[in-house]
Amino acid sequence: MHDIAGVLVNSVISAALYATMAYGLAVIYGVMRIINLAHAGLMMLGAYATFSLFTRFGLDPFLSLLVVGPLFFLFGVVLYRLVVSRLPRSGATPSMESLLLLFGVWLVLQNLAYFIWTGDTQSILTAYTMKSVAVLGVRVGVPSLFVFAGSVLSLVFLNVVLKATYLGKAIRAVTQNRDAALLAGVDADSISAVAFGLGTAFAGVAGGMLSTLYAFTPDFGRSFLLKAFCIIVLGGMESVTGVAAGALVLAFLENGLSAWTTLPTSFQDAVSFTLLFVTLVAFPQGLPGLFARLRTAFR
Amino acid sequence: MQMPEPILRTKGLKKRFGGLLALSDVNFSVAEGEIYGVIGPNGAGKTTLFSCLVGSLSPTSGSILFRGREIAGLPNYAVVKRGLVRTHQIVRPFRDMTVEANVSIGAHFGAGKRRGADARRRVSDILERTGLGARSRSLAMTLPIGDLKRLEIARALATEPAVLCLDEVMGGLNPSEIVAAMSLIRAIRDSGLTVLMIEHHVHAVAGVTDRMLVLNFGEMIAEGVPRDVLRHPEVVAAYLGDDAGAA
Amino acid sequence: MRRLSLAAGASLAVFTLAAPLFLERGTLNDVWSLAFAVILASAWNILGGFAGQVSLGYSAFLGIGAYTTVLLSLKGMDPFLSLPIGALLAALFSLVIGLPAFRLRGPYFTIATIGVGEAVRVCASSVSFTGGSSGLRMPAGSFDFTRNYEAMVVLAILTVAVAALVKRSAFGQALAAIKQDIDAAEALGVNSTRFKLGAHALSAAVVALAGSLYAINFQYIAPGSVFDFRLSLSIVLMPIVGGVGTIAGPVLGALVFSTLQVKLLSIPALRDSYLFIYGALLIVVMLFEPKGILGLLRRVFTRRLRRFYADA
Predict the structure, then answer these.
(1) Burial of residue B11, with CB atoms counted within 10 A of its CB: 0-12 exposed, 13-18 middle, 19 or more buried
(2) A160 vs A282: CA distance, rounded Å
(3) Is C269 an 8 Å CB contact of chain A?
(4) What is the pTM of this model?
(5) Is A273 within 8 Å of C229 when comparing Cβ atoms?
(6) Are B212 and B238 in contact (CB under 8 A)?
(7) Exposed e or buried b per residue across A7-32, where buried means at least 16 C-beta atoms within 10 angstroms of its C-beta
(8) B81: contact with C, CB 8 A cutoff
(9) How distant is the alpha carbon of residue C176 from its chain centre?
(10) What does the alpha-carbon distance between residue B164 and residue A75 come to, in Å, rounded to a whole number?
(11) Residue C106 and residue A108: Cβ atoms within 8 Å?
């Protein structure tokens, strides 16, 4: 019984972080049909930015998210204008050129990080890093709780932006039906820039939060990137709830496996890879597609 | 006298996309050597029908008998290898390949499975018959739309089909081009093939087909010789206000 | 034109094969590395360039070849006899991945291959019979550099020749059609899955052979080196930078990369910049000339020719 509570609590906490991580990828794909491989590098940079703010100015990592978020939004817009927008647009289908281009950006970011911060493993140690609290009878680290709070806040903020602002609605419109949205007068270029900025901001914020939980090097981010792919393929990228659902499934699977089997943690990465692979092949529309098909089957 | 087995026949063919019933209970048969027309207003399900016949879509239910054997649900390439091929309404040439190379794909991998010099002969023969002989070494992307349509037909012919399904080949052609297309289609039939054609130019298709099928909202509303079909009240009603029908 | 490049290629081949007679060991090492790169780039190009299916998990096949050779040699087999076995295993593995993965299109296939590559590396590092993360050493035996050198060069020549033959064959035409428009290809009778699997198996087998030769020459392998993601990345970058889908492109790309490696390693300041350089190359190529160096040369050349004829 204790075990289940532990798995559930840890799953929900991980899921919130994963969702924040995945959403950054989802919004860019939804609006531009571009798979942003640089997402890993951006998360890594978010971690390092938070680290620098902490070591230079003593700024608490969670407070610094308020700085990292907007900073990375601007960075994302700049990146879009300088590099991504110059790509010849292929339209509805995601192109190999964009994939490889952003891959290149990721490599450049990695090298940048090596230059600035060296390849030494870094981590953030605050006064509360080692403390833990009991939640529903389960011991949870204090940083994890803050990460949970930070993730939920980001997702709520995102939901508000998507539902209440013009830009948010435009983003949703383009994600659902690009041609119709363009016909309705949406400026594709501005929306793409905003989407890229938003995606980058979320990557940075997720990275910042990850830095409080894990030690990191410039190579950091690849396994999280794969988790993020897994989530958006599983949950679809049309909605925040879809992403959240995918995140929950992955988190639950990971925590469950580590609690109830003897698989070593190094295999945990293989879990997300396998899940990704299986999902892509068995039900490419993800959970939403699966539910839609189930609904019609039972008509 | 015993009627010969139709070369192509559907029974109860149905295709559903989620909530939309694109084809419902389509039953028709085509005799060998016929030119058989499929007409109907936009969205009637004509292209969906072709896609189901050829295997690029799987029918929800029903059967498709080609030369007496069931082919419903077979993948596209398998159906082509059996001798049933289609052209696309919006042409899909291999843009970076030459005209000759485009047609070779059909010759190598279609029902004929030709190789080497034999394939090359077949390819140049088809290029001559479809009027593309002079442009055989041009890259497909340099061709004007009229030649691209010929290329689409040439590629399909290269697979050595028994049944050729043409999807709106006459779309966008001027009257003299339409006449040329009609005689090409007759020549194809006379060389031994059976031809199905989806067309929007109702009167052009009436002039070349032996029998016609009319679809509306996925259902058959008439079938028979053009003269009877075009006088059928439901068919007239379906086309009322449709510009292409009045052309 | 073709006869010219055939003659050039043949003389280059003869020169390279005869090189141990007049080049010193250090340079021969570099040529060995170049041949290794040419094999990887040309083999990958068969699936990635001809058929347009970009896989970022090819280090798995390299590792399979390398590990098969080392493990079988430790059991007493002549290392060179293990080559076909490694190739066969790699081809089989490529089928296992390919059957499900080829249902995916474009970038989704690529992402799936990233996952596979990583999963293989994780497994290899964790399982004990592969020596775990510390790797394995070849048994002490006759180390003959000249023999190793000739083997690698011969494999490189054969790989380029096979790639050229494939490109001209009906098989190659089918791959080109699949790359252009897979549905249109299927509509003309091309069983695209079978061709993709075939190209995948062929290139996997060749890469595994290169991996075996690598193990024989370096005498020591570890998951970090043969299953590394950066290796998968280099394998993809070479043909893309050189000219994806062509015969000379991967060779050109391999040349560029080998030279870069050598130069970078000799300048301490630049040693850690290879990521930046790879990344910048990718960005530049994707933005300005997706057809790579060869594409750029062709563009410049045809412009010059056109101007020449216009002025004449």
Answers:
(1) middle
(2) 34
(3) no
(4) 0.87
(5) no
(6) no
(7) bbbbbbbbbbbbbbbbbbbbbbbbbb
(8) yes
(9) 19
(10) 56
(11) no
Q: Which two tokens stand for residue B83?
A: 């001798």
Strands B84-86 and B163-167: parallel
* Count of helix runs (H) and strand runs (E) in chain C: 14, 2
**Helices A188-213 and A39-57 meet at what angle, rounded to 10?**
60
For residue A229, which of C110, C282, C230, C117 has the smallest C-alpha distance? C110
| Residue in chain C nearest B102 by alpha carbon | C177
Beta B211-216 vs A138-141: how paired, if at all?
unpaired
Best mutation site among B54, B77, B155 for testing chain C: the one with the most C CBs within 10 Å? Answer: B77
Helix runs in chain B, H state only: 46-54, 76-82, 99-109, 116-129, 145-158, 175-190, 202-208, 226-231, 233-239, 243-246
Residue A89 tokens, joined: 């647009």
DSSP assignments along C228-276, one per residue: -HHHHHHHHHHHHHHHTTSSHHHHHHHHHHHHHHHHHHHSGGGGGGHHH
> CA angle A32-A37-A41, nearest 5°?
125
Coil/strand/helix, residue A269: helix
Q: Which helix (H) or strand (E) holds B214?
A: strand B211-216
Structure tokens at A14: 């991980």
List per-residue pLDDT tens for chain C, 312 residues long.
678 878 888 888 888 888 888 888 888 888 999 999 999 999 999 999 999 999 989 999 999 999 999 999 988 889 899 999 999 999 999 999 998 889 887 777 887 888 788 778 877 777 767 777 778 888 877 788 888 999 999 999 999 999 999 999 999 999 999 999 999 999 999 999 999 999 999 999 999 999 999 999 988 888 877 787 778 888 998 999 999 999 999 999 999 988 887 777 777 766 667 778 888 888 988 888 888 899 888 888 888 777 776 665
Residue A103, both tokens? 């891959």
| Mutation target among C235, C281, C282 for the A interface, most CBs of A within 10 A | C282
Q: Residue C278's closest CA among C83, C270, B205, B192? A: C270
How far is residue C243's CA from residue C289's CA, in Å, rounded to a whole number? Answer: 9
